[in-house]
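Recap from last week: sequence in, structure out.
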Amino acid sequence: MRSAPIVQLGGSVDFRVLGPVEILCNGHNVLPTASKPRQVISLLLLRRNTVVRTDELIDELWEESPPMSAMTTLQTYIYKLRKILVEPGAEEILSTRPGGYVLTIPDSSIDLHRFERDAALGQAALESGDAAGAAETLRRALGMWRGQALVDVVQGGLLSSYATRLEELRSRTLELRIEADLQLGRHRELVSELKSLVLTYPLHEHLHASLMIALHRSGRRHEALEVYRVLRENMIENLGLDPGRELRELHQALLAGAPLGEPLEQDRVTVVPRRSADVAVPAPFPPRDAPAAPRAGGAEPGPAADDAPGDPAAADLAEAALAAAAPAMAEPIAAVVPPLGPPAQLPADIADFTGRASIVEEILSGFASAGAARDRTATPVVAISGMPGVGKTVLAIHLAHRLRPRFGDGQLYAELRGSTGRPRDLSEVLGGFLQAMGVPEPHIPYGLEERSTLFRSVTAGRRLLVVLDDASSSADVRHLIPGDPRCALVVTSRRRLHGLAGSWEADLDVMDHAEGVELLGRVIGRARLDRAPRAADRLVELGGRLPLALRCIGSRLATMPEVSITEMAERLSGAPRTLDLLSIGDLDLRARYDSSYAGLSRREQAVFRLLSMLPTPRFTAHEAAELLGWDAADIQSALESLVEHRLIRVTQYKDGEIRYRFPELILSYARERLTMALDPGPQGEQPYLPPRPAVPPVAACGPSAPPEAVGPRRLMSVGE
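Predicted C-alpha cells:
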C-alpha cells in the first residue's frame, strides 16, 4: 500500500511529546484540554504516518469497558481534532483510512524524531572517538525533554508502553552523555549530578559505576568505595542479588588502587536503540564455555566465573536466528555492547517458608537423576496449581531457589497476571527475556511467533531456569518454553494446565494443621504462640489452613502486640464478614476471590452464589440441581467451571458418588456475594444466611429460562 504524501503544514506548527503534549501553532498551544482527545492525538503522534486502527484507539480510551457509543464518541474526538488542525491550514493531515485514522506529518515537525536523530548522532560520535562532539550532541538531545514523556496525558495500555520506551531511551542517552563527559575529564562537574541520579535510581548499576569513577578521578576513592557498599546493601535487601561482574571488577580495582584504564570504562557504553539499518548485530549472550572476545587494547579476558557445561553450537544457532530475524544492514556502525552475565531475575525467597516438604523433595529428586537428564529430549515443566491464597507463588519461588545451582546459565522470571483479567502481553514478556539473554532491542522481531522461535534458538545449548507466575492456560506457557532439555520451566496457575505433556503437576491444597501452626508461629513468634496453644489451633482452623489467610492473621497479631491470640480468635469467629479481617497491606484474600469470581459467566456467578444457601458445605450435583430446580445434567457444566476456577473442590466417596465441597473461606465469600445480590447495602451489614429454601419452580429457573427469570427474587440476574 502506498504511503500517504507528507502534507506541508501551513504556518509554524510543532508537535511535542517529550514532556507535556503540545501542538504549537505560531507559538500558541492549540491542543484541547479534555483528557480523551489528548489521548487520541498522543497515540496518533506516536504512530504518525501509519494507520492507527479504531479498535486500538477504543482500547486505549476505555480499555476493557468501552460504552455502546464508543465509535460515535471517537468520531466526535476526531472531528474536534480536525477543527483544531484546520486553523493552521493543515486540514488534510488527519485523514480517515479503512479501519482507522492516520496523522500525516513530517518527521522534522515532532520533537521525538529530532531527539532520536541527535541521540543516534551522539552515539556514533562517541563510538568514533569524538567525545566532545558526542557530549554536545547528546546534551542537545536531552535538552528537548521538558518533563516525563506524555506527563499530562491519561495513559491506557498502549500509551503507557510508549511512555516507558521513551523514558528508557532518555535514560540510555543520559548514560552516553555521562560517558562522553567522563572521557573529556569532566569528572568533578559530574559528581553532584551523579549523586542526585543515584538517589533517584538506587539500584541502577551503570549510574553507580559512573559515580565511582568520577569520585575516584576526583581524589575521593573512599567515597567511591562507600557508593559501592550502599548499592550492594540495597541490591541484596531489595533483590537478593550482588552487583554485576563489571561493577565488582571496578570495586576490586579501586580496592587495589589499580588505574582505571580505557578497556574497563569503554565496555560500559550502552547502545541506544536505533533503526536496524544503522546498527550492527552484536553476538548474543555467548555460551559459558565459549572463548571470550579479546578486550580493547589487547587485554586478555580473565577466567570464567563458572565452568558449567554449555553447547558450543548454541552460539552459531542463535546467531543464525538473529540474522534471520533482523533485516539486511548497510554500512553498520560498530556498537560497543556491555558484556552480560547470566540473568538472575528470581524474586527473593521468603525466610519463613513453611511446609510443602514432600512436594519440594519429590521435584528435586526428579531433577537430581543424572540418567533422566541425559535421556531427556523435552524441557521439563513443573506446573503448580491450586485455589487462591494456597501459596503457589511462594512455593514456585522457593523451589526455583533450591534448583538455582543446577542452572548456571541464569534464571528468568515473569508475572503473567493470568487471573487478573488483564494478562501480560506474551510478546512483551519474550522481548524482556531476549534482552536479558543479550539480544539487542533493535533486533528483536515484532511478532509473538518470531520472538518465540528466537527465544528457543537463544536458549539452545544452555542450562536455564524459567519461572512463570499466574498463567491463565497452557497456551500462555507454550511460547515461553526454552529450547533445550537441560533447561526447566516452573509455572503457577489457578487452573490445571491441561495439554502440557510430560509436566510434573503439583495440585496444592491447604496446609495440614501442624504446618499451619508452624507458619503462624514463624510470623508472630513461637513463644507468643505457645502461651495460648488452644487459641492458636483455633486460629489455624478459622483461617482455613490457607497460607495467605494465616499470614494475614499473623501480620495483624504482629502489628498489635497488645491483642492476645485468644482475643483474635474470638474476634475472627464472631466477625459478620470474616474476610474483612483477612486483609492487611498487600495481603488481601477477598481480592484473590474477586478475580476468580470475575472469570465466571453471569450464569456461573449466580450458581456460585445460590449454592451457598445449601445447609452444608458438601453437596452432590443432585442436591445442587434440586436447589436450582434443574436437572443434574444441566448443572454439571456450571459445577465443572467452578471446580476449574478453584472455587469448589470435588471429592469421591467410598460409595463412588462424586461430591463437591466449599472450602470454608470461599463459602463465606459466596454468602457475601449472595447478600450483595439480594440486598445491596453497606459493606458492614450482616450476611444473609437463609434456611434451605423450597424448590423454585422449574419454569422460573430452568436452564432454558432467560437469565433474568431465575427465582422469585431474580437472583441469577442481580448485578453487583
